[in-house]
C-alpha cells in the first residue's frame, strides 16, 4: 500500500515540477482521485490537458475533479468500476475525448451529450442497453462512438443500422 501511495505522489510531483500538460495515474490501485492531489496540483491544474486514470479500482469520480481540471481535452477512465459520472462533466468546455471502456455503466452517461467539443466517446465493454440517439445526433463535434460489447436492446441495434452522422461501433447480434 505504501508503495502505491509513493508511486502516486511521485507521478503527481513530476507533473508539477516538470510542468507537464498531462497526468498519468493509471495502474495505481486508486479507488478515487486522491484528495491531497487537488492541493498539490492547484497551481498547474489549468495547464493539464490529458489525464489517464485507467486500470484502477475507481467506483466514483467527484464533481471536484471536473471543476478542478476544467481545461481537460482528454480523459481516460477505462478499466475501472464506475457506474455513473457527476452532472458537472457536462460543463467541460474543452473535452474532446473520453474513454469509459470496461467500467460498470448500465446507462449511457447523458451529461456527455452536453459537451459541445466532445469528438470521441469510448463506452466499449459496459452494460448499456440503450443510448440517446437523438441527443447524440445533436452533438456538433461527435465523430466516433464505441459501444462494442454492450448488451444493446434490439430497438437500439436496429436504430444504429441506419446512417448516423458519426461513426458508431457496436457488436451486432
From TrEMBL:
PROSITE patterns: LRR
Pfam families: LRR_8
Protein name: Leucine-rich repeat-containing protein 20 isoform X3
GO CC terms in record: extracellular space
The entry's keywords: Leucine-rich repeat, Repeat
Amino acid at each position: 500500500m505504501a508503495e502505491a501511495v509513493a508511486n502516486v505522489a511521485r507521478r503527481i510531483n513530476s507533473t508539477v515540477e516538470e510542468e507537464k500538460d498531462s497526468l498519468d495515474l493509471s495502474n495505481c490501485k486508486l479507488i478515487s482521485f486522491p484528495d491531497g492531489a487537488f492541493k498539490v496540483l492547484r497551481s498547474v491544474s489549468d495547464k493539464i490537458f490529458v489525464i489517464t486514470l485507467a486500470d484502477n479500482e475507481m467506483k466514483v469520480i467527484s464533481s471536484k475533479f471536473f471543476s478542478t481540471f476544467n481545461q481537460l481535452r482528454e480523459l481516460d477512465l477505462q478499466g475501472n468500476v464506475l457506474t455513473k459520472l457527476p452532472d458537472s462533466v457536462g460543463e467541460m468546455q474543452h473535452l474532446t475525448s473520453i474513454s469509459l471502456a470496461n467500467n460498470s455503466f448500465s446507462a449511457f452517461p447523458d451529461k456527455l451529450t452536453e459537451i459541445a467539443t466532445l469528438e470521441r466517446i469510448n463506452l466499449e465493454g459496459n452494460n448499456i442497453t440503450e443510448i440517446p440517439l437523438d441527443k447524440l445526433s445533436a452533438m456538433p463535434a461527435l465523430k466516433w462512438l464505441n459501444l462494442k460489447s454492450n448488451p444493446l436492446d434490439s430497438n437500439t441495434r436496429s436504430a444504429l443500422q441506419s446512417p448516423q452522422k458519426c461513426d458508431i461501433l457496436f457488436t451486432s447480434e
